[in-house]
Structures are given as structure tokens and as C-alpha cells.
Amino acid sequence: MRIEHEKIRKILVIKFGGIGDVILSTPLLKNLRNYYLDKEINYLTQLKCRDVLMDNPDINRILTFDLEKDDSLRLLKTVKKKKYDLIIDLFCNPRTTFLTFYSNAKYRVGFNFPRRGYAYNLIVDGKYKVGDFHHADFGMLSLKKLGIPFRQEETYISILTGHKDFANEFFNSHNLNGIDVIGIPISGGWESKKYKAKDFVELINVINQCNNFKYILLWGTETEKKECEYINKNLPELTFIAPETSIRYAAALMRKCKAVISNDSGLMHVAAATGVPVLGIFGPTSPLLQGPYGKKHLTVVNDKLACLNCALLKCPIENICMTELDKNTIVNKLKILIQKNK
Fold it and tell me: Residue 239: beta bridge partners?
């Protein structure tokens, strides 16, 4: 199919999913903006992900969909009324597939998932085994289908002056300026991929046998806050709990850290997007597919196990990919990460 790029005026990118999924789509946006300099680029995502896209210079408008309200008819009407010339569906579930089809956009990009082909006239091969591509690189495949060069390979989140002032105030009030601080997000959508609070206590003790680091604990839910309180109770001189805040304020805190240690989570990808070096701890998910994106980051796994990358929400063998991961292995990777990014 020949694409008349000069006639494309309005573009919509669709990506539902978690915060990390949306962050991993930002290299696509940068490359789209570099190619379509003066065109209108909109982004459709779930309401909970809106904050990570705010003030992104590569987007003209953010459209949101609240799954709790399920106002699909309104969404269909809104998208059709916009008269997009190009839609890139990075999610391709039944809702976004039909939405793309119903839009009447001239160019409709999507993946060759079962029972989805009717909606797209530019179909991207999404059938790869783990390790062939990082999740962020599926955006690159979409651009390749359009004949658009993919040059920008960094994720992005906007951190404004107010966010920086908040982070500076937190560091000032806890006397953390001039001290090497490690950020630790206590978060994760699945219990099986979370590094447990008890293990973080043990890990911090091992790290600080040879270092004088302090630690900022970040959280999102009340359960995660309680886990932070458990760590802080056991390590009151070393750890500081971040206050309840939104994503970009948390990003500003992590940006001031020497490094971030995190299991696979949205906040791990947020941290990577700020430019701070990230050490990702992985078990049921694959670091090759979902690790922190960019050359400065590293990951660590319990490579003695054959059940890695199981993708199970609940582990039948007590989460040993996390609990039996040797603390010294993590510490050695942290040393390499810090040295790598000096």
C-alpha cells in the first residue's frame, strides 16, 4: 500500500494498559514528531495513564477512556468526528480494534493478532518469541511499516519546575543533599513480580556493608505504603518514605537519586524515563521484553531457575525467583550499574 505522507494531517496513537506500557510508547511519539513536524498527533489511553503523557511536546492532545465507566459509544463518536488520517493501534484488543475500524481513517496500523485483521490495512507482524524485541520496539515495527525512520530510542516523561521544587524540598527537609541516595519503588501490578519488603530490608543491609547510601521508598497504594513502613521501621536511619503524590512528582524524586532498584513495575519505567540508572529485578516477566529501556540500565534474575518468564500472576512455588535470588548477586549488579554510569 502506497502511503501519501504529505496528505496526512491528523494522527492518533492508541495504547491502553499500564503506566509502564504507555511510557514504553514514547520513543514512537518522538519519532513520529520528528517525521510529521507540523501535524496534529493525539494519543488515546486509559484515564489512569494520563499524567505520564502530560506536557509531552510530541503530543497535541491526550484523549482518555475510563474503563470503570465504559463509555464506548461516546469514544467511538469522538474518534470518528476527529477524522484522523492515520491511526496506530499499539494495543489491538477487541475495543481498540473496532474503534480503529470504525474511525474510517485512511491508514490503520495494527498487529496480526487473531480476529483483528479486518480493522487494519497496514498490518505489522507481532508474532515474535521473547528476546527478539523489547516491548518498546514494537513501536519501531509500526513506524517501519509506514516507512518512517526510527532514530530516537529513549523513553520520556515531562518533569516541570513544580515537580523539581517538590523533590528539592524533600531532599532538603531530610538532609539528603550531598548524599548518595538510592530510590526504591515498592510497587507492581502482580504480587508474583514484586520484590518483597522483607527482602528489601535484607538487601539494603547487604548493600550498606560497603556503602553509605540512603534510600527513598516510593509507593502508590495503601498496601505498598504499609510495606514501605515495614522497611522504614527496620531501617529508620537509612530509609525515608516519600509522601503520597502523583507520578511526575515521584519521577522528580527518583531523578535526583544515584540509582533506582525496582522490580518490574510502572514506576521502574518512569524512573528509566527520567534518565536515572535503573537496576531491574525480574522473575515472572522477561527483562528482554519488559526491562528498563535504554543503554544505561541493567537487570538481574535468578538464572538458576528454569521457570523464569512464567508470566504467572500467582506463583505455586512461593515466588522463589525473587525470594531465593542471592542478595550479593544484586549488589554486584548495582556496583556495575553505578560504575557504568559514572
Answer: 215
Domain count across the chain: 2
Beta bridge partners of 13: 43, 88
Q: Considering the domain boundaries, does residue 154 fall inside one? A: no
Helix, strand, coil % over all residues of the chain, rounded to 5:
40, 15, 45
pTM over 0.85: yes
For β-strands 107-111 and 278-282, DSSP reports them as unpaired
- What residues pair up with 299 in beta bridges, in sequence order? 280
Neighbouring CB atoms inside 10 A of 210's CB total 9
Three-state DSSP state, 71: coil
User: Alpha carbon of 112 to those of 116, 142, 170, 238: distances in Å?
Assistant: 7, 12, 47, 50
Residue type, 312: L
**H helix or E strand, kind and range, residue 108:** strand 107-111
CA atoms of 300 and 291, how far apart (whole Å): 10
Residue with cell 484522523: 84
pLDDT tens digits for range 22-76:
999 999 999 999 999 999 999 999 999 999 999 999 999 999 998 778 778 888 9
> Which domain-ending residue is among 115, 146, 177?
146
Cell numbers at residue 183, please? Answer: 530510590
| Cβ atoms of residues 192 and 284 within 8 Å | yes
| Whole-angstrom distance, CA of residue 147 vs CA of residue 1 | 11
303-330 tens-digit pLDDT: 888 888 888 888 888 888 998 999 999 9
- Residue 290 in any domain: the answer is yes
**Could you tell me the sign of the dihedral formed by the alpha carbons of 101, 106, 108, 112, in that order?**
positive
| CATH classification of the domain holding 86 | 3.40.50.2000
Alpha-carbon distances, residue 282 vs 63, 72, 215, 289 (angstroms): 32, 36, 20, 11
Within 10 angstroms of residue 139's Cβ, the number of other Cβ atoms is 25
